[in-house]
Amino acid sequence: MSAGLLAKPQMRGLLAKRLRIHIIGAFAVSLGVVAMYKFGVAEPRKKAYADYYKNFDAMKEFELMREAGVFQSARPKGE
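The structure assignment produced for this chain is given below.
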């Protein structure tokens, strides 16, 4: 074999080239994780809160908690 047939190894800029590839890959993976979290966790959670508070009656809940004896300052109506 002749030395002229083999390609010379890249000795300069190898770290910078590898870092550029890895940074682009890490950025793409992080965007994918953010998108999965947003559409898999955050949006369903927002929808669940909106559905809960759509028909929420605060006075009804207060009366239920008062009758259950949760509050010290607001005694049940029977007392």
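Interim note for the steering committee: The radius of gyration is 31 Å. The chain has a mean pLDDT of 90.
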